[in-house]
Design brief:
Distance between the termini: 37 Å
Number of strands: 9
Structural class: alpha+beta
Order of helices and strands: EEEEEEHEEEH
């Protein structure tokens, strides 16, 4: 059965640097920096690629990766603090979000965790910057599509 579409806003496939940390736990793991897979006004998704190794016939995560944070991201409705780096100014937009969905897969010697995060809180000025950034990307992508059509 196909997965029901959950998107409420058009997604833009673009890689934006993002630092995430867990909110509301007594001993949270350190923040991690990843890149978005796609973004929208209401949320974003990211993929975390983790190298695995086989130990006694079991897959394990080698040192250097933080399995606690990854396990936390796999739980729906968990709250996260985010610092989204918008380009080209390299300004950071702060937001709080929650895990809306998560998929896991294993390929070769890597474990992939794809996470959808809904943006729950963002200061008004930063939301306006986020909206302006999204508009600029929409226009840029539309220009690329028009250029490709003209070359055909």
């Amino acid at each position: 059965m196909p997965e029901q579409e959950r998107r409420h806003a058009e997604r833009l496939h673009t890689a934006i640097p993002l630092t995430i940390e867990i909110v509301g736990t007594p001993l949270p793991p350190p923040p991690i920096t990843v890149e978005t897979e796609d973004i929208s006004l209401r949320g974003l998704s990211l993929v975390i690629k983790i190298k695995t190794r086989s130990a006694d016939g079991r897959l394990s995560i080698p040192e250097g990766e933080d399995p606690k944070l990854v396990k936390y991201l796999m739980l729906d409705n968990k709250r996260l603090k985010m610092e989204i780096k918008i380009l080209p100014q390299d300004k950071a937009i702060s937001a709080t979000g929650k895990v809306a969905w998560c998929y896991r897969s294993l390929r070769d010697d890597h474990y992939f965790v794809k996470v959808g995060i809904s943006i729950e809180e963002m200061q008004r000025e930063q939301r306006e910057q986020w909206l302006e950034f999204l508009r600029a990307i929409y226009q840029f992508m539309a220009g690329l599509e028009n250029g490709e059509e003209l070359r055909k």
